[in-house]
Amino acid sequence: MSAGILLQIAQTLLAILLAPLLMGWVNQCRAWLQGRSAPPITQPYRSLRKLFHKDAVIAHNASPLFRFAPYMKFACMALAAGIVPTIANDLPFSPAADVIALVGIFALARVFLALAAMDIGTPFGTLGARREMLVSFLAEPALLMVFFTASLISQSTELPIIVATLAHKTFAIHPSLAFAAVAFWMISVAENARIPVDNPSTHLELTMIHEAMILEYSARHLALIEWAAALKLFTYSALGIALFLPWGIAPQGDIAALPLALAAIVAKLAVGGAALSFMEAVSAKVRLFRVPEFLGTAFLLAVLGMLIHFLLEG
Amino acid sequence: MSHLASLDAHVLDLAWAGVLYWLGVGFSALLLQRQHGLLTRLIFPLGALGALFMAGIGVAGLLLPASSMVLPIGLPDLPFHLRLDALSAFFMVLLGGAAFGITVYACGYFRNMAAGPLALLALWYHLFLAGMVTVLLADDAYAFMVAWEVMALSSYFLVTTDHKIPEIRRAGFLYLLIAHIGAVALLLTFGVLQGGHGDYTFNTMRLAEMTPFWSSAAFLLALFGFGAKAGLVPIHVWLPEAHPAAPSPVSALMSGVMLKTAIYGLLRVTFDLLKIQLGWWGTLALALGLVTALYGVIFAAVQSDMKRLLAWSSIENIGVIVAAFGLTLIFHTDGKGALAALTLTALLYHALNHAFFKGLLFVGTGSVLHATGERRMGRLGGLIRTMPWTAWLTLIGALAIAGLPPLNGFVSEWLLLQAFLLTPGLTQPYLNMVIPVAAATVALAAALAAYVMVKFYGVIFLGQPRDPALQHAHEASWPERLGMLWLAGACILLGLFPTLVIQWLEPVVLMLTGQRLSGISNWLLLTPVSAERASYAPLIFLAGVTAVVALTYLWVRRVYHGRVRRSEPWDCGYPEQNTRMQDSAEGFGQPIRQIFEVFMRVERETPDPFDHHPHYHGDSRDKLWLLIYQPIADLTAWLSMQAARLQHGRIQWYLIYSFVTLIFLLVLTR
């Protein structure tokens, strides 16, 4: 048990520390693909350090909610990272929150940030909050449906058990998982504010979603939000790996498998990050009112996956 | 054990004493017509004590076996039968718990009302409470219908408190009309249920042998009758009119508690009075519930009146509850007892949660209304700075109803979603297709609820005041704060200790489904089936969030600094921004309106670009009103017009009518 707790803490800390690295890697790949000279892979750390050193500039009328929201978002993402198995499957914290609760944690962070965005009362903040909630109300049920498909196969909503079932059982074809995987990819793109739903490097009012919400933030609050965003990307990637490519995650009580698991996850994340930047480089951002169509497709695919499970595999 | 046994015999007496107590409190208010101070400082606090007492009786009723009694009141051969079993007891706890907070709030809320109308209002208020409890206690159709009518009529008078406003009179009339159409359906239900014995006690009904046809007839009538009270689509149209029209504590009681009496009736008739249940009833209820949930939340998202938004959100929650009811029926008839127990637990849990968070939100809007005199969200904003108590307490309610962990709304949603995941292997193949779609709909409605709540909270409490007068908004009074604290505290506790609540619900679940949840193990970890299937520990979750927030805060402070500079908000290079440029309620709902435009008829007036005082008007109407109710109303009006042709107001014509009738009858009977 104590080894499990140590592993839990180590895994969560590792996620928190390595998340900006994944962000840096995606940015680097994208710069290469776009023919620009790439920033170093450690650029996100430098930005965070710079932001933490600055003085926070806060609007006169900001309420305590505004200052609390970044901490809340960061805490939620850290907890989410603690639930998803990245290198080991032995997570004593995970019974506290299963996959449905995981969706709830993401929603909690999102609602707090959206409320904080409306707190100052600038047009951009409310616009961002509205758009963010628009994206989420379709993405969230779709994510839930993806999890449902995986849970139906493994007869559990506990992530470690889902991963153990999917990774270690004899080879079986689950067509439903293929649908779920496509849906999950689309949801991850939308939830992490990537092209084609949102553009993390834009500040153009017609298009921005996530950036519009956090326009009023500066210094340590902005740093926490940026860090949490990186953590979210990391958690989603780890989730995708855990659900659809779980091979290599160390099973419960197997300390010897840890180095191999670490290597496996790093390799998978590197490939996944490169794939994400490739997708971003070849696609264009869609108009805001095409986003519901994009997410509606993801939602339908996920529901279809669940239906297929009931029809073919049930 | 002996004192428990003696309590056992008297608990129903005590419950009835509580009803009489409320009646006494209500009528004594009439004696204090001129004593404003006594009305708010004595009558409402006494009423609140009664609510607490009722909740206590309910808790006792859950622990004790069922007891019944006969009261020699009413018509000579028709005494009132009363019975307190686990189901009634659970709803009494719900009623008492929510009504206590709401009534404490009411002590402060009505302080500005004139003494005369207030005395009348206090009478209706306590009659309403007494009527609801009697509905729960009634053990024969006669007592049930009398109590049901007391509840409907007293709430009608409460809705029309501000009867000088034509819209409110109209809303009250619509409410009364649909309440009575529903009541007629209920009368017919009991008529079918008694099965020709001519004996209207529930005990006879429980024993009546009925064919599936007549059982179905009774069920459909009950679904219609109770659905009209609960606001099930398409008989929901009165709810968004009537609930906002009432004073806020009454809105809170109606949405939080009165709607649950309909759920109680549905459970009582279906699982207790009817001997057999058929699977297709469940499918029907599930479909109706899901449509209601989705319809309600979509319309909630496009509302611009804060109380109307909450009323639509009540429709959504009732939809979720009825969907859970349908699932329970499906599982129960399919022989999946454990699953039926799970969905029934989710149903009861959600009903309880909704009583508290919807009560909290409604009274929160009441304080806002008091402080600003404004119900339109487009005129509010920034109230978190002038009304921090109201704002922070309402935030708890908003987060709870949005289904966010670790508050209570999440627990019931979680339980319901778990039930969907455990379903494979139903005997009806088509049900296996329905389940994923149903799960998707519930998830969609839950996600939209979060959208609605961000809109509700953000537009009212956050941002900058859209009207300069809002700077002077005053904070809620102490009784109001205490009432809100009670309701918010319940939302938190129900969220943090789900296993205790579920154990406490067990007698009800056992009574209706004959099953109990298998997996409940310890107070920390909620495992409805088994630890391998699913678990959730809100306390650990809360501890985790708190720990990370505290550690991050301390770390940032220690390693870096806590320096803050205050300045103007960034204006994006456009200095002429004003507070009206924030998203209004219409603006925030616009994406939803655009996506779900098929359900509504949108009326829009956009101003001329050169207009110096531009006026924008947008209204999203319920299409069902136009498709169903308007034709019926038109037809009724047309028929009345035709009948009116007979009326000329001249005595000669009426003499001719009598003469012709007489001749006709003479010819006929010759």
- Give the N-to-C terminal Cα separation of chain B: 77 Å
Low-confidence region ranges of chain B? none
Q: Summarize model confidence as the mean pLDDT of chain B.
A: 88
List the quaternary state of the chains. heterodimer
Domain module count of chain A: 1
How many strands appear in the DSSP assignment of chain B?
Answer: 5
- Cα end-to-end separation of chain A: 35 Å
Biggest chain pair contact, residues each? Answer: A-B, 79 and 83 residues
Question: Element order, helices and strands of chain A?
Answer: HHEHHHHHHHHH
Mean pLDDT of chain A: 86
Please characterize this protein's 3D structure.
The complex is a heterodimer of chains A (314) and B (670). Chain A has 314 residues and is mostly helical. Chain A has one domain (2-313). Chain A has helices at 2-33, 43-53, 64-83, 99-119, 123-154, 159-168, 175-191, 210-213, 219-244, 258-282, 291-313, and one strand at 56-59. In chain A, helix 4 runs antiparallel to helix 5 and helix 5 runs antiparallel to helix 7 (175-191). Chain A is globular and about 60 Å long. The relative contact order of chain A is 0.17. The model of chain A has no long low-confidence stretch (mean pLDDT 86). Chain B is globular, with a radius of gyration of 27 Å. In chain B, helix 3 (86-109) runs antiparallel to helix 10, helix 11 packs antiparallel against helix 12 and helix 13 (337-372) runs antiparallel to helix 15 (388-401). Chain B has helices at 2-31, 36-63, 86-109, 115-137, 141-159, 166-193, 202-207, 212-230, 239-245, 248-273, 279-301, 306-333, 337-372, 383-386, 388-401, 408-421, 429-461, 478-496, 498-513, 538-559, 585-595, 623-644, 651-669, and strands spanning 67-75, 78-84, 564-567, 600-605, 617-622. In chain B, a hairpin with a 2-residue loop joins strand 1 (67-75) and strand 2. A two-stranded antiparallel sheet of chain B has the order 1-2. Chain B has a two-stranded antiparallel ribbon with strand order 4-5. Chain B is mainly α and 670 residues long. Among the domains of chain B are: 277-519, no CATH class; 624-670. The interface between A and B is large, with 79 and 83 residues.
